[in-house]
Amino acid sequence: MTTNTLGEFEQLVLLAIVHLQGDAYGMTIRRAIEERTGRTVVIGALYTALGRLERKGYVASRLADPTPQRGGRAKRIFRVERSGAAALQRSRDTLARMWAGLSPDLRPER
Amino acid sequence: MCPRSDGLRAPALAVRILVLSLARDERECVIGDVLEEYGLRAAADPRVARRWLWHQVLTSLVPNLRRRLACHPSLLPANRGAPLRGLLVDARFSARLFRQQPLLAAVAIISLVVGLGVNVVLFTIANAVLYRPLPVRDPQSLVLLGMQRPTNVAQNFPYWAYETFATHTEVFDTLTAFASRSAALRFGAETVSSDGELVSGTYFGGMGVPIAIGRGLTPEDDRAGSPPAAVVSGSLWRERYGGSSISGRVLIVNGAAFAVAGVADDSFRGMFPGAQADFWIPLAHSRVVTGGDLLLRRTTSWLFLVGRLQPDVTMTGARDALDPVLAAMLKSAGADPQPIVVSSGMRGTDSLRPRLERPLQLLMLAAGFVLLVACVNAANLQLARNAARGRELAVRAALGAGRARLLRLLLMDVVIVVLPASAFALAVAWTGRQAALNLITRFGEPVKLTAPIDLRVLLFSVSAAAAATVFVGLFSARQAGRPSAEALADGGRTETGSRKRLQHTLVVVQFALSMTILVAASLLVRSVSNLRTIDLGFATNVVMIQVAPGDAQIEGQAAVRYVEQAVARAAAAPGVEAAAAAHVMPLDFGGSRTTVRIPGYKPSPDEDMEINYLRVTPGYFETMRIPLLRGRTFATSEGRGVPIPIVINQTMARRYWPEGDAIGRPVGVFSSGPADGEVVGIVPDVHYRMVREEPRPSFYVSFAQSPFFQGVIHARTAGDPAAFVETLRRAVAQVNPQVPVSRAMSLHEQRLRNVADDRMAEAIGVTLGISALLLAAAGLYGTMTFGVRRRTRELGVRLALGANVADLRRLVLGEALALVVAGAVFGALGSRFVGRLLASQLYGVPPDDPISLAVALAILITIALLAAWLPARAAAGIDPVVALRQ
To answer: What are the CB-based long-range contacts (under 8 Å, 24+) for B424-427?
Structure first.
């Protein structure tokens, strides 16, 4: 299961973490993806992806303080590691190369 | 755990489910996330928020559980400090089995559920019927008395025998006497016929019968002239008295009022297993039910005697002490000496045991075979699993796992299959046990039994599951023996010869066992078919109505007139060709017997001269189409007279007057003095009490000669008697509404009831046979499918080398069928042995009947072919190019 390429959902998660800049934990990541893409994100699936990303070393996490909104529970904050950023850029490059020469409505350019 | 955000509560159930689906270390964070968001959403719209929460919880279940169960197998030897955690890790690893081999796992579990379930249900029945003691105090110390007669053990005594035995307090701590009778109970305007027991005053106290309300009967109640008191059953109490208080309540038995003294506990149903007594009244007042004062009649043996032995007396000791007492009693009565029999009274009269013990034991043996077949399916699963594990086990061993550790690992594989299967099986047995017991009910006499899952049953199921585990585990254990370097190298991809041989042997064993049960089932089917259809010697399109005028205080000449009226009314009904009456129902197991004395005939020393007789109205022979062979039958005009005219059957004529004519000869039937009867006619033998009986001497006495006060109206109908039962019952009931009609049925129905036990054995036997066969077939299917997959490369090579598709199919099918046929042959041999065990159960079928064998074989081959067909087709569908690349 260890490949160097990122799945689509994994990319969304990583990008969301980048957007959230230090405030990236389960709830915020989930809402960020939902708001931006309109996709329903299931928290269980999100944590599975986060676990996978952490195992690959693309993200790292730390335990932050509990808050009353969470009933006194701690939250786990994620951040993107260098290898994760590199993987994201690789994915973007790959996609850009495939799109090269095509207009957004899938016609050859010019 | 009430998470609150802005004062709004999240639904606790949803949170609970979420908690349970998450691994421990994740819980805090995930739940925190979910609740935080819930709080935000609930502030806007609580209903939508709740729906969102439930959606998140339910759709997260699968990913959460997958993460939770994700296996990180421990390759290191389990640390001694945390054995339980090691087990859990092993269990998780073994659970992967369900994903890797779903088909085989499903077959194994379902097989075990069926195998275990069948055994538990059958044992529950056997427990209720044969093993459970009476719910009284210390049932082990109870004994039942009897007299050893030439052909059976008589268990009935006259009242004075009870009194005599009761004086022997050195043997008995207490002694009770009781009899079962039915009587008419009146509730308001309604009269019903119910079964009850007539008991001595020592019954309740002496045996320690559990009482729910009030008290039991005491020796005070059993004194002449005492106020009549009765005890009723719990079900009668609830049904007829609304379960309210008993003070001042009265039970009307055959018109006599008894004060209700108490209500028996629901667990106690009387002394006759399979029956439910609705009332108990003291012997001192028994004449309302029996019609005469049987307590004084010295020659009427009608009471069962059950006693509790003194603590220091054994059953043999009791027998030695009581034998001379019985001998003296018989001598004073002028009867022949008979040794006393002292048997266990733990189950009361144990009336079901003689009928059902043998068939149930044989059926349990068959159920054991079914379990064996199921275990083989589970064992096959193990072999298939382990075939792929050679490499893994070698790695573990190389990393330091000891033999015990590997064994534990492999055993866990077995437990993970057997444990859920046992739980399922118990659940199935729990819900299905009453239905299984009703099987017995449906076949014959309502056998009212409860089948609690008591300790004995639980113990049995646990033992069965453990045995299954051990059996299957043995196969695993073979694998644990020294994984070798070769296994590390080749990864266990090739099929070792011994494993293949083992699998083949298992298939043969399964089909052998199935064949054995199938042959036994076929024998039973043929036997029952015989019992249903053989000629009984009389007409069968007959409706029978049982009436009890004595229960309505109609006696003497009034009773005679009542019976004549009832017969006339039945004969006049539309569709009835002829009607008559007899004092008992045919094929009812019971009847009357009397000791006959034939002048000029000397019986051999152990010859039983007590023979069966029937009291009939004159139209009986014509109604039942029993032809007259010699002489004449009874004339309507014949009143009481001496000599008593009797009509005898052929066996009686041949046995007692082998040369010469029996007509006109004198016979001593009811008196011990000079011969009081004379033979006037001879008729052919018929079946009297049971379909299964051997021809024996019997005779008929005219109704006019010795009138009966309860009897059975027989009416021969033009068409199917079942259609006439209700109308005839009503017609007879109208003759006198006070007289209870206790039973109304067609002769065909009665015949089926008479062979109820055989039909039950047949049904269970067939079920077991089909179960075993289907399990074996499922096992064959699973093994073959798995085998074909593993042989893909070999089969691909064959295709590439020029074999065609049909050849491949024939190859696979042929190998499977060879095993099946081998199994069938062994099974056929085994069935000869089983046939001998069954021989006593069979009727008109030899134990080595070839037709049954052929039928069983045909069914076996057909089902096996069906099971083997699909895998064979899959083999034929192999693409050689793909296969060779593997």
So the answer is: B424/B109, B424/B113, B424/B117, B425/B112, B425/B113, B425/B115, B425/B116, B425/B117, B425/B120, B425/B461, B425/B465, B426/B116, B426/B120, B426/B453, B426/B461
| pTM of the predicted model as reported, rounded to 2 decimal places | 0.68
Which helix (H) or strand (E) element contains residue B761? Answer: helix B756-790
Q: How many angstroms separate the CA atoms of B335 and B298, rounded?
A: 12
Q: Who among A42, A51, A70 is closest to B32 (CB)?
A: A70
The C-alpha torsion from B336 through B341 and B345 to B346, rounded to 10°, is -160
Residues of chain B by 3-state class (helix, strand, coil), percent to 5: 55, 15, 30
A67, A71, A75 member nearest B29 (Cβ): A75
pLDDT digits (tens, 9 = 90+) for B290-330: 767 778 877 778 899 999 999 999 999 999 999 999 999 88
pLDDT digit string, tens, across residues B706-754: 777 678 999 999 988 888 888 898 888 888 888 888 788 899 988 888 8
What local confidence, expressed as pLDDT, does residue B89 receive? 77
**What single DSSP character describes residue A67?**
E
Peptide bond into B643 cis (omega under 30): yes
Of A43, A67, A69, the CB nearest to B30: A43
In DSSP notation, B480-545 reads TS---HHHHHHTT-S--HHHHHHHHHHHHHHHHHHHHHHHHHHHHHHHHHHHHHS--SS---EEEE
Q: How far is A14 from chain B (nearest CA, A)?
A: 18
pLDDT in tens, A80-109: 999 999 999 999 999 999 999 898 888 888
Locate B63 and state its tokens: 């990913």
Mean pLDDT of the region B127-153: 85
Instruction: Tell me if B39 and A67 make a contact (CB, 8 A cut-off).
Output: no
Q: Give the span between the Cα atoms of B501 and B210, in whole angstroms.
A: 60
The residue in chain A having the minimum alpha-carbon distance to the alpha carbon of residue B56 is A42
Confidence check on the interface: ipTM exceeds 0.85, yes or no:
yes
Asked if A75's CB is within 8 angstroms of B32's CB, the reply is yes
For residue A63, which residues of chain B lie inside 8 Å, CB to CB?
Answer: 29
Residue (of B332, B338, B301) closest to B605 by Cα position: B338
Q: Do A27 and B39 touch (CB under 8 A)?
A: no
As a whole number of angstroms, the distance between CA B196 and CA B209 comes to 15
Beta bridge partners of A80: A59
- Residue A27 to residue B33, Cβ atoms within 8 A: yes
| Residue in B with minimal Cα distance to A29 | B33
- Reported as a single tens digit per residue, the pLDDT across B783-833 is 888 778 777 778 888 888 887 888 888 888 888 889 999 999 999 999 888
